[in-house]
Design goal:
About 10% of the residues lie in helices and about 35% in strands. The chain is mainly beta. The strands form 5 sheets. Strands 1, 18, 19, 20, 21, 22, 26, 27, 29, 30, 33, 34 and 35 form a 13-stranded mixed sheet that branches. Strands 12, 13, 14, 15, 16, 17, 25, 28, 31 and 32 form a 10-stranded antiparallel sheet that branches. It is an enzyme of class 1 (oxidoreductase).
């Protein structure tokens, strides 16, 4: 065998530490130039190493100012002042007033109104101007028929041309941009009234609750209260009434997992809290017509006591227990950018560049981080990629769990974002951005370091091949933009990935504490197994809807359906017919066919293409919508709690025409009006053409949560995971990584089969300790 290794990599290691010098190794000047200078010695800790520098950010300035920025405090104040002006005739009460009541009109939220796509494209691609407006939510309890209404106020800054108009143009529900007051948000004023009702109901029966539940309630601010209540969501169907069931749990660490067996129904309809009342009671699955009837039955000894919530809650603690696993005293592997970050961030404009990718971001109170003007190699792929809502539908053998259907946008996913933990939530040396939004207290707020940005190895090469003549491998990497929100009991992690090959991914993970059920042996695990002394896991489904507004080259795109069909064929070169597969390619021509299921066995591919722009081979340039792990939808399609409000979560993929009047598949105020939501998603699909039009794909991630003992104390993100990909499909003339320098090519050259190792001048930094097994020497050889 003849082998000449033209690689300075690991020469010092091989010659000085582990082996005798290779007598054949005598690199020429040409070979040194080909390899470039290198300080990669490959030693582990056998001699002092250079220290790795902290990655330095490379400055970048966004080409244009971000058109999606949140309102400043001055803008919020000016809008509030304008609304309070008697000239507007709104009769608003200041929320800081000591005499404010449920029957007053007041401001609940002032936020930026997301601009129309047509205005933004005119600004980004030409010299247009993006008008700036505020989105205002007013709680109008002083009306003859009290409502909660959404309005636009603008243009900003405030001037003589500023107007307030109902946002009926973006809400297609039966009541436009308003809902009846009883279906509105539970703000601090309404919450205080509910707390008074709870105190008036429960304090008089404290002897009963102390006996049956071993806890009592005297008001949320009373130190004697050892019990806490929760409100069922949704609490209404159309706003005509607001009636909810409340479970009662031990007040302490993570009450989600300390439920009792008591449920009380309450009617809180209307702005007159003196008319609110308790209704039915369920205890031990026995139904009582009133609290008084329940109390009387208990006094008479006719109530069978069930086990109260466990008082030993060590099962909820996450502190380390048990002996340390072998070698677990060493730090776990982590992602490091030893040569410095390969991405650039304009923090002021929330603009990012990474290996051919560019995009803007915005942060939203309702849903958190969103992405705009996503381009790869200078060409726009998507105008928008954004979370729309995250919902959860529960089941269970009690009135609270059976009637629970959360729409987390209602609670403010962005507002629930958390400061990320370096080294745990995000790798060390990640870049961080703040999430800025307007609170419901009319304040501009920034959650520090709620978004992290880092590059990571995808765990595999992006391409590779080895044969007797040559060998190659290209490193696989992607940029991750991550956000985590703690919405009540659950922590949701969203990763948006931008791969070096032009692929975009969205990953969703969940952790936190399950909303446990009270354990009853007679349930026989039909809604979840027993996971602790007095609790059972609860069957539920998470669905997260995302908007992907494709603009492949321009806004004229089509949706192509490529099916794999199997048929019997007869061919002259075979003696008998046999089954063979082929493509059946067709356009999805109209929105009538835009609500789509995923066929069995993955035998259908959906591709957004631009027929007016082909690659070198005449193929329409496009991107594939590629379902990944656990793309689930709601199991129950006709539940009354998501009847119309959850239509977006009832099919894996939907594709519609883009309209500025259809900016979102859900709405913040949809939670309590499943029969009369502000947005009815299926109304988007009204027969319009999908051929060479501006298309939006609405895709779902999710998990059917089959609860288990391993959910205690916290759900594991390894399993609670769902993702989807948007991958190039004939977008280029070849695959899109041939311009990457982080690749190696090895081949034989010349009569003596001298081995050439090309790494394009990219070497591991000198601070990286490497061993002999990390050497490229000898990986590729040629046999004579």
């Amino acid at each position: 065998m003849k082998s000449i290794y033209l690689a300075t990599v690991l020469l010092v290691l091989v010659s000085a530490t582990f082996a005798a010098p290779n007598p054949r190794y005598n690199p020429t000047t040409r070979e040194k130039r080909r390899r470039g200078s290198s300080s990669w010695s490959g030693r582990r800790s056998l001699q002092p190493r250079d220290s790795c520098p902290v990655p330095e950010d490379v400055a970048v300035v966004a080409p244009k100012a971000n058109p999606f920025v949140s309102l400043s405090q001055d803008e919020i104040d000016s809008v509030a002042m304008w609304l309070h002006d008697p000239a507007q005739g709104l009769n608003l009460t200041n929320t800081s007033s000591a005499t404010i009541s449920l029957s007053d009109n007041y401001i609940w939220h002032v936020d930026v109104l997301k601009p129309n796509k047509s205005d933004v494209l005119s600004y980004l691609d030409a010299s247009g101007v993006v008008p700036r407006y505020a989105r205002v939510t007013l709680i109008e309890g002083g009306r003859e028929v009290p409502i909660v209404g959404e309005y636009s106020v603008g243009p900003l800054p405030i001037s003589n041309s500023t107007r307030k108009e109902a946002l009926d143009n973006i809400y297609n529900g039966p009541n436009g941009a308003k809902l009846l007051w009883s279906a509105g948000p539970v703000d601090s004023l309404r919450r205080a009234a509910i707390d008074s009702l709870m105190n008036a109901t429960l304090a008089p029966i404290a002897d009963l609750t102390n006996d049956l539940l071993e806890m009592a309630f005297y008001g949320s601010s009373d130190s004697r209260s050892t019990m806490i209540y929760f409100m069922q969501s949704p609490a209404s169907t159309d706003g005509e009434k607001s009636v909810f069931w409340s479970p009662f749990r031990r007040n302490g660490m993570e009450p989600w997992d300390q439920p009792s067996d008591l449920y009380i129904q309450f009617d809180i309809t209307g702005t007159d809290a003196s008319q609110w009342r308790s209704m039915k009671v369920v205890y031990n699955l026995e139904v009582y017509d009133s609290v008084q009837a329940f109390y009387s039955a208990w006094k008479a000894g006719n109530v069978t006591k069930t086990s109260p919530p466990a008082t030993n809650i060590e099962f909820l603690y996450k502190n380390k227990t048990g002996s340390t696993r072998e070698l677990e005293d060493r730090m776990a592997p982590t992602v490091l950018s030893l040569d410095g970050n390969r991405f650039k961030v304009d923090k002021e404009e929330q603009y990012i560049e990474y290996l051919g990718w560019t995009f803007y971001m915005r942060f939203d109170y309702d849903v958190g981080v969103q992405f705009y003007d996503i381009r790869f190699r200078g060409e726009r792929i998507m105008y928008e990629l954004s979370l729309q809502d995250a919902i959860a539908q529960y089941a269970g053998n009690n009135p609270f769990q059976a009637g629970t259907a959360y729409m987390d946008r209602f609670y403010g996913i962005g507002a629930a974002s958390v400061r990320l933990i370096p080294g745990y939530d995000c790798p060390y040396h990640a870049a961080y951005l703040n999430g800025s939004y307007a609170t419901t207290n009319q304040e501009s707020y920034s959650q520090i370091n709620s978004i992290c940005i880092f590059e990571t190895d995808i765990g595999t090469p992006i391409t590779r091949h080895m044969n007797p003549v040559w060998s190659q491998a290209t490193k696989g990497s992607k940029l991750i933009v991550r956000m985590i929100a703690t919405v009540g009991n659950y922590d949701y992690l969203w990763d948006y990935g931008f791969y070096v090959d032009g692929t975009i991914s969205v990953d969703a993970h969940a952790s936190g504490y399950i909303q446990a059920n009270y354990y009853r042996p007679d349930d026989e695990g039909r809604w979840g197994p027993r996971v602790a002394e007095t609790i059972a896991g609860t069957l539920h489904t998470h669905v997260m809807n995302f908007k992907a507004d494709f603009d492949l080259v321009d806004e004229k795109n089509s949706l192509v359906k490529t099916e794999i069909v199997v048929e019997n064929v007869t061919q002259p070169w075979f003696d008998e017919s046999f089954e063979m597969m082929r493509y059946n390619i067709s356009d999805v021509e109209t929105e009538d066919d835009g609500l789509m299921d995923l066929p069995a066995n993955g035998q259908t591919m959906f591709t957004v293409v631009n027929k007016d722009h082909t690659n070198k081979w005449g193929q329409p340039r496009g991107y594939r919508i590629l379902p990944g792990l656990s793309n689930v939808v709601l199991a129950s399609k006709s539940s009354p709690f998501f009847r119309k409000s959850g239509q977006f979560a009832k099919q894996p993929i939907a594709v519609s025409r883009q309209h500025d009047s259809e900016p979102a598949s859900s709405a913040t105020l949809n939670q309590n009006v499943p029969d009369a939501p502000l947005v009815e998603f299926w109304k988007f699909f009204n027969g319009e053409s999908l051929v060479q039009e501006d298309l939006v794909a609405w895709v779902n991630l999710g998990m059917h949560h089959y609860t288990r003992s391993e959910d205690i104390p916290n759900t594991l993100m390894s399993e609670a995971h769902s993702n989807i990909f948007f991958a190039p499909q004939n977008w280029g003339d070849t695959e899109l990584t041939k311009d990457l320098a982080n690749s190696v090519m090895m081949y034989a050259e010349g009569a003596d089969n001298e081995i050439v190792i090309e790494t394009n001048g990219v070497e591991p930094p000198s601070c990286l300790n490497l061993g002999p097994e990390d050497s490229l020497l000898g990986v590729f050889t040629v046999s004579e």
